[in-house]
Amino acid sequence: MVDELVLETSVSGVRLKHPVMVGSGVLGDKPELIIRLIEEGSPAAVVTKTLTKKPREGYLPPVIVELGYDSYLNAVGLANPGIEVVKDLVNAGIKLSTPVIVSIAGSSIKEFAELAVIADEAKASAVELNLSCPHVRGLGAELGKDAQTTYEVVRNVSSSIKIPTWVKLGPWDNLINVAGKSLEGGADALVLINTLRGMKIDIYSFRPILTARIGGLSGRALHPVAVRAVYEVYREFKCDIVGVGGVFDHETALELILAGAKAVQVVSAVISYSPSVIVSIVESIKNYMTDVNVKSITELVGLSHKI
Q1: Considering the domain boundaries, does residue 216 fall inside one?
Q2: I want to staple 103 with a disulfide (CB 3.0 to 4.6 A). Which of 24, 60, 163, 305 is the partner?
């Protein structure tokens, strides 16, 4: 019976009613937008847009290019209203009984810790350290590519707050090393993966389309890379992982779960369709569980390693 299915899961102690969350970058910078995400999509949790110490305007348009095949290149430039809005964002989730994970990006080890403390004080369910934004200088990837620097950032953040520390990493060549250093530094969960660096050129103007020239590749094109990253990191560390990258339906969500993710984040699918796509994914996961005679979603986590 479908009623007997257990979709509840948890990541680093953050309890989720099902394994599908909204990832960072989708409508998560205003309380009313977080409310819309929750009311239309009923996600297990919402991750805010990445917040920085001060407001950022980001790059001039165009900041996103639709590539077809449900894939995008984007270079928004971490545009956000700044960390001061965090309490209002978290409260929007609290009112609707939905965990809010606060994504942050600092320009230094000290700044990451300062932002994390503010998120903790605002009663966020966890902080997600954006150590992998591929198109902003001085933030994110410039710190996260280096394993020792990543360790220092995570150690300082995790020792400064009481709520869980999640670390969002990119698909670096040294991913296993950086993941290991993140865990050594006190990461409670890893979020895998952020976008890949990419570019698109207009063949008539002869210029890159994005004003930032280089952007992050997301959507279906990223999915096989995300599955590989989750699989390899889970195989090595058996840690709590949140999978993100090209989740559009129950099949793409389940691939990440079978590879080792306890939960997944949806980003591009919300852009392509609407927050209600989450409802559809969750219902299809239920049907799948019935078909394969699995009663709890936790039975599927990392199952591909056991077959």
Answers
A1: yes
A2: 24
